[in-house]
Amino acid sequence: MAGEIGLASIGLGRWGGQLAERVQAGKRARIITCYARRPDHRQAFAERFSCHPVGSLEELLADEKVAGVLIATSHSSHRQLIEAAALAGKHVFVEKPLTLTLAEAKAAVAATEAAGVHLQVGHQRRKFAANRKIKSMLDEGTLGEVQVMESVHTSSNGMKMPAEAWRRKPEESPLGSMTSLAVHTFDTFMYFGGPIKRIFTATRAPRGAITIDEATALTVEFASGVLGAITTSFFVPDLVRLSVMGTAGAAFNDDDSKKLSIVRLDGPGREPIELVANDPIEDQLNEFVAAIAGEATPEVGGREGMAVVAALEAAVKSSQTGQAVALD
Question: Which CATH number fits domain 125-278+309-326: 3.40.50.620, 3.30.360.10, 3.30.420.40, 3.20.20.370?
Answer without folding.
Answer: 3.30.360.10
